[in-house]
């Protein structure tokens, strides 16, 4: 082959190679365009140093990495997007794609309150044995019917204790006439009314303020949250009661969830599960260490005799069995034994 012919052949080969490379690049660009990116927001009311926020930030980073940026979740903690009630409403109407909620779903889906019925479960492990299986499946189905997609694995908060600024709660008689901040659901209000207290409903972002300005004498929360929210600054007495459990549920707007392709849903569910299980371990450690911290901060601690709390609960349980329904109640009693 002559030199001019060889040069021409090489030129044609370069042209063909360049054309092929351009085609591959174009195909890759078309593929990227065919896989749209999703930018979602997730709101929660717990502090930025809480296990909830930290594990959700980790979850979001892991999802973004695995999906190569196709699913990006921006996490807003400390009530940055509003109160729990406001964020729940935003999630329902599509203004917010994801939300981590605690004791806020009850007015809409009453059975979400069941794991927190007083003096039923013995520890968090027993609660999650029910929530990760049949009882949780029942509750999640009811939530979906109300326009809330709930992830399978819930987050822990722990067992509640009582704090007060006025007096220690040594027996049920000390609750008489005491104003106590409760979450928004009616079941918690009924419990304290049954015991002679005066419950007042406020969302978590209002808690410190209503204790500081003496709108409420006391409140109910696990030890770790009492520490994280610095309630020792506005409460003097800590009475150990272990009267009920509470936790958090990661939820999504069904439209936003269903818009995700199956591989993105799978990545989100996988890392949500990892985050929940890690958060449960974090909360165990936080609650275990918080009592010493709260004592060091000056809180006066006592162990309450709760026998008087339990005596009037037969009628209370009967009322809430009627409210939640026989099927849900049977699933609960299969785990905790007969209540009524």
Structure characterization notes:
It is a single chain. With 340 residues, the protein is an alpha/beta fold. It has one domain: Bacterial extracellular solute-binding protein, family 7 (D-Maltodextrin-Binding Protein, domain 2, 3-Layer(aba) Sandwich). The chain has 13 helices and twelve strands. The chain has helices spanning 3-34, 51-66, 84-92, 124-131, 134-145, 186-194, 207-212, 223-228, 254-259, 262-296, 307-310, 313-324, 326-336, and strands spanning 38-43, 71-76, 98-101, 149-150, 155-159, 161-164, 179-182, 198-201, 218-221, 237-240, 245-252, 300-303. The strands form two sheets. Strands 1, 2, 3, 4, 5 and 11 form a six-stranded mixed sheet that branches. It has a six-stranded mixed sheet with strand order 8-7-9-6-10-12. Helix 2 (51-66) runs antiparallel to helix 10 (262-296). It is globular. The chain starts with a helix and ends with a helix. The model is unreliable at 2-10 and 12-33 (pLDDT under 50).
Q: Tell me what the CATH architecture is.
A: 3-Layer(aba) Sandwich
Could you please say which CATH topology applies here?
Answer: D-Maltodextrin-Binding Protein, domain 2
Name the shape in a single word: globular
The DSSP helix count reads 13
What layout of secondary structure does this protein have?
Blueprint: H1 3-34, E1 38-43, H2 51-66, E2 71-76, H3 84-92, E3 98-101, H4 124-131, H5 134-145, E4 149-150, E5 155-159, E6 161-164, E7 179-182, H6 186-194, E8 198-201, H7 207-212, E9 218-221, H8 223-228, E10 237-240, E11 245-252, H9 254-259, H10 262-296, E12 300-303, H11 307-310, H12 313-324, H13 326-336
Parallel strand pairs: 1-2, 1-3, 7-8, 7-9, 10-12
Antiparallel strand pairs: 3-11, 4-11, 5-11, 6-9, 6-10
Helix pairs in contact: 2-10
């Amino acid at each position: 082959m002559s030199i001019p012919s060889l040069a021409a052949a090489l030129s044609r080969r370069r042209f063909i190679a360049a054309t092929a490379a351009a085609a591959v690049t174009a195909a890759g660009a078309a593929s990227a365009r065919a896989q749209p990116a999703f930018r979602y927001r997730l709101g929660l009311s717990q502090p930025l140093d809480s296990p909830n926020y930290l594990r959700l930030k980790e979850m979001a980073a892991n999802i973004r990495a695995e999906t190569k940026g196709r699913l990006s979740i921006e996490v807003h903690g400390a009530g940055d997007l509003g109160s729990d009630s406001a964020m729940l409403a935003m999630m329902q109407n599509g203004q917010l794609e994801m939300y981590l909620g605690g004791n806020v779903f009850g007015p809409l889906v009453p059975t979400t309150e069941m794991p927190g019925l007083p003096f039923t479960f013995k520890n968090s492990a027993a609660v999650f044995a029910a929530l990760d299986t049949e009882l949780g499946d029942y509750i999640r189905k009811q939530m979906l019917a109300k326009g809330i997609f709930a992830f399978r694995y819930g987050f822990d908060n722990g067992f509640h204790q009582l704090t007060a600024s006025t007096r220690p709660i040594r027996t049920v008689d000390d609750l008489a006439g005491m104003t106590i901040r409760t979450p928004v659901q009616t079941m918690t209000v009924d419990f304290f009314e049954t015991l002679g207290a005066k419950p007042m409903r406020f969302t978590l972002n209002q808690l410190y303020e209503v204790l500081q300005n003496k709108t409420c004498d006391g409140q109910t929360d696990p030890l770790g949250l009492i520490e994280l929210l610095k309630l020792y600054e506005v409460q003097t007495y800590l009475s150990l009661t272990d009267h009920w459990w509470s936790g958090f549920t990661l939820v999504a707007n069904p439209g936003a969830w269903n818009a995700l392709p199956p591989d993105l849903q799978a990545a989100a569910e996988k890392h949500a599960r990892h985050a929940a299980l890690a958060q449960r371990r974090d909360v165990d450690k936080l609650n275990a260490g918080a009592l010493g911290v709260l004592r060091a901060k000056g809180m006066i601690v006592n162990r309450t005799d709760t026998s008087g709390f339990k005596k009037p609960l037969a009628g209370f349980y009967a009322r809430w069995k009627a409210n939640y329904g026989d099927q849900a109640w049977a699933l609960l009693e299969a785990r905790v034994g007969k209540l009524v």
